[in-house]
Amino acid sequence: MNISVIGTGYVGLVVGACLAETGNDVICADVDAGKIERLKQNELPIYEPGLEAYVERNQRDGRLSFSTDIAWSIGEADVVFIAVGTPPDEDGSADLRHVLDVADTIGKSLRREVVVVTKSTVPVGTASRVAKAIGTHAKHSFHMVSNPEFLKEGAAVDDFMKPDRVVLGAETDHARSVMAELYAPFVRTGRPIIFMDIASAELTKYAANAMLATRISFMNEIANLCERVGANVDLVRRGIGSDERIGPSFLFPGPGYGGSCFPKDVQALAKTARDCGASLQVLEAVEEVNARQKHRVAEKVVTALGPLGQDARVAVWGLSFKANTDDMRESPALTVIEDLLSAGVRIVAHDPVAMPEARRRLNSRIGFAESSYDALQGSDALVILTDWNEYRHPDFERMRTSLRRPLIIDGRNLYTPDKMKKLGFEYYSIGRAADSALPPQQKPGPPLR
Ligand code: NAD
């Protein structure tokens, strides 16, 4: 099939490369000329394991191409995917400007019957708005499909190639049969394609992210309670996660969720509910708990450091919002760093892939270290904010001797408190017994701001 993917970001690039991998002819189009030029040279704008090989192979074999000519990419397509960004508006709702711009271009560029797929995460009713915008200009018939994307950054290629399920909101037989054919190679092992109406498909994406965010905020609150009552959240997590009704995923406490999806999708769903007079009280609390959690790590650092000297310096390991990505959108690290800077602490950070992005965002407000151990030299504490594998089994002796004071605040619970104590560290993590050993006056105080 001839496919046009409009918007070549985290989602569009993965969708385009994976559809080309199964033999389709794909044009990925984007308004960002610099990005398209680099992609033509096989230079990826994002870090995503496995993606580079797909882009290189399919571009070389002529199945994948890149263009800034959006109208041209649509002209010969059987299926057009809209994969542009839907950032949060000031009031929390999804900003559909880019989606509707693309719809306008599609309407003006159609040269044959086409299936138009909204891949971007968009609120209920968006497909109708897109159809209306296309219909204003279109001289050929078109079929709307809502096909929300569930890939995880850091495992995006695998998630797209082997999805748990494919959700397709479609309302014509033509749309259903084209999409079933397109996705057939990805569901050969029996994973379901779930057909539904368009509104349900649009809502499914938000409900999925809202559920996952809810689990995270719930566990963060349980972890905070563990600290107060002297329990260990690792054990509680295992105790509840082995219940088949609950399951083990998304039960890890941490510094709060971030990224380009959970924060904005939770807000947008809550806004949709408010707009139609149905408040989602659980979600309002999920967001509030998450905002609070992002500040807790910095509070722990400041509390553990005690009175700050002139040259207080903290090493940060991990800047991206989770491991295996360079994405720093809404990363908890940004909140922790801002809080520590406003408390007068100097920061030297390390991240295996996100340092270029962090430099772009933070300029020279913090220092960067080439290696994780360099960041520790002369620092009064280490804060761990991303669960990169390379931080899991470090040389503890080297860490202890590099740090000016052997103090670790671990926002990802990478190490065991007992072991760290034996190794000579002052070690604080999230929701585990050792934290409750802090004398009462050292318990985290009120929010920094
Ligand atoms: P992104 O910001 O990485 O990429 C969006 C791309 O769209 C950019 O390259 C931008 O230049 C381009 N663009 C903007 N306006 C355009 C226009 N008018 N014409 C052509 N290109 C245009 O965003 P993303 O992370 O890929 O997310 C895209 C959508 O997918 C969002 O709705 C997001 O919520 C959703 N989504 C994202 C993820 C994820 O993990 N990132 C997962 C599932 C769903």
- Category by helix and strand content: alpha/beta
Q: Provide the β-strand percentage band.
A: 5-15%
Poorly predicted regions: 436-449
Bound compounds: nicotinamide-adenine-dinucleotide
Mean pLDDT: 95
Please provide a written account of the structure.
The chain has 449 residues and is of the alpha/beta class. The protein contains 17 helices and 14 strands. The strands form two sheets. The chain has an eight-stranded mixed beta sheet, with helices on both faces. A six-stranded parallel beta sheet has the order 11-10-9-12-13-14. Helix 17 links the parallel strand 13 (407-410) and strand 14 (426-428). It starts with a strand and ends in a 21-residue tail after the last strand. 47% of the residues are buried. The model is unreliable at 436-449 (pLDDT under 50). It binds nicotinamide-adenine-dinucleotide (NAD). The site of nicotinamide-adenine-dinucleotide has 26 residues, from helix 1 and helix 5.
